[in-house]
Amino acid sequence: MGLLGSLTMLLLKILLFCSLRIVTAQTNSTGGARALDVLLQDYAYQALVRPKIRTGFVYDGVLPSNLTGIMVSALRLRSGSLRRYGVRMYKEFEIPIGVVEQPYVERLVLVYQNLGNWSVVYHPPPGYMYLAPVLGLLAYDASNLMAKNLSLLDIHASGQPISINFSDIKSLPEGPVPRCVAFNLNGTINFSVLSPDKKCTTFQLGHFSVVVESTAPPPAPVSPMPPGPGAGPVPSGHGKKNNSKVWIIVGSVLGGLALLVMLGLLVPWVHKYKKTKKMQRMERAAEVGESLEMTRVGSTKAPTATVTRTQPTLETEYVP
Ligand SMILES: *[C@@H]1O[C@H](CO)[C@@H](O)[C@H](O)[C@H]1NC(C)=O
Ligand SMILES: *[C@@H]1O[C@H](CO)[C@@H](O)[C@H](O)[C@H]1NC(C)=O
Ligand SMILES: *[C@@H]1O[C@H](CO)[C@@H](O)[C@H](O)[C@H]1NC(C)=O
Ligand SMILES: *[C@@H]1O[C@H](CO)[C@@H](O)[C@H](O)[C@H]1NC(C)=O
Ligand SMILES: *[C@@H]1O[C@H](CO)[C@@H](O)[C@H](O)[C@H]1NC(C)=O
Ligand SMILES: *[C@@H]1O[C@H](CO)[C@@H](O)[C@H](O)[C@H]1NC(C)=O
Ligand SMILES: *[C@@H]1O[C@H](CO)[C@@H](O)[C@H](O)[C@H]1NC(C)=O
């Protein structure tokens, strides 16, 4: 049973390794989103580094080729102006009157992000599918436009909520109801109702999108129109990858257990098999010995059976 013991140890080690992998994968996804925020803040601020910036004017950032698909913009405002007037339209966001930031700064920069096809990479929706890209709105201190890795300002809407216009999403005629999703800055996720005019609302900044529950695709018998790239919902490729990873882990663990059970059965079987083999060998040896004896003892070389099964009956015996 030494073999069995070491196999059990190996299996336990595999299990431990797998669970560690799951934990690190989860911490990486949120860490990745934070690192992206830091990177995008830098690129957004670079759009503001020019001879003359107009306050309240939106400047689009230029991103490196390894971030193609993401859009970033910067809007610099006096915080007093933000509180008194709000921002009527900043891309898809509408900021009402009465918004205050914490800690107080004299000027701030509102960084807008559209994560496009990177949405599922940085904000994998658990069990959902995106109907729109993830849009981010974050606020930073504007006092140093060369600053990197700035800490976020906490922005609260006190009266009316901030609204996000998702008018571009395609309406689903039937199926699951689309919902707003908010990725809060503290790492929690909130779901809320998508209004009939396709708007989501929030009282704080963060990342937002519209999702539907990704149920198993119905067995569509005929679909003459294949979904084109770009059109339609953003596929949750990352979620699938994660799912398949989990399945691989579950599969290998179950496989390992099955192997262990099989080995458990195999060891006694091999034992038994060896025994039977040995007995068969002994029997054969006995048989060989017997036949040798018989040939030695018998007068003829023809093999003779010790017991005659069917006695030959002579017809003449019945004749009177
Ligand atoms: C974190 O995840 C991203 C994609 O989700 C990947 O590109 C990156 O290499 C990962 N980082 C680490 C340290 O594993
Ligand atoms: C993209 O490339 C730049 C260098 O060109 C690098 O600093 C940055 O970390 C890269 N970003 C990602 C997300 O890989
Ligand atoms: C997003 O699309 C661009 C091209 O439009 C591509 O270069 C980039 O690799 C894509 N990103 C992801 C995560 O698929
Ligand atoms: C950014 O700042 C945080 C603390 O606010 C720090 O932990 C982190 O290492 C910094 N990252 C970079 C790239 O400087
Ligand atoms: C939402 O945005 C679209 C343009 O993308 C615009 O036509 C529409 O009027 C906006 N809706 C509201 C309620 O602001
Ligand atoms: C995280 O933030 C959201 C909204 O900003 C809030 O509703 C929630 O209570 C916070 N959760 C924690 C644990 O701080
Ligand atoms: C967000 O979700 C948390 C739980 O995850 C809940 O405590 C909080 O009240 C929610 N906030 C909003 C604004 O719905």
UniProtKB/TrEMBL annotation:
<keyword id="KW-0472">Membrane</keyword>
<feature type="transmembrane region" description="Helical">
    <location>
        <begin position="246"/>
        <end position="270"/>
    </location>
</feature>
<feature type="region of interest" description="Disordered">
    <location>
        <begin position="217"/>
        <end position="238"/>
    </location>
</feature>
<protein>
    <submittedName>
        <fullName>Uncharacterized protein LOC111398605</fullName>
    </submittedName>
</protein>
<feature type="signal peptide">
    <location>
        <begin position="1"/>
        <end position="25"/>
    </location>
</feature>
<keyword id="KW-0732">Signal</keyword>
<dbReference type="GO" id="GO:0016020">
    <property type="term" value="C:membrane"/>
</dbReference>
<keyword id="KW-0812">Transmembrane</keyword>
<feature type="compositionally biased region" description="Polar residues">
    <location>
        <begin position="297"/>
        <end position="314"/>
    </location>
</feature>
<dbReference type="Pfam" id="PF06697">
    <property type="entry name" value="DUF1191"/>
</dbReference>
<feature type="compositionally biased region" description="Pro residues">
    <location>
        <begin position="217"/>
        <end position="232"/>
    </location>
</feature>
<keyword id="KW-1133">Transmembrane helix</keyword>
<dbReference type="InterPro" id="IPR010605">
    <property type="entry name" value="DUF1191"/>
</dbReference>
<feature type="region of interest" description="Disordered">
    <location>
        <begin position="284"/>
        <end position="320"/>
    </location>
</feature>
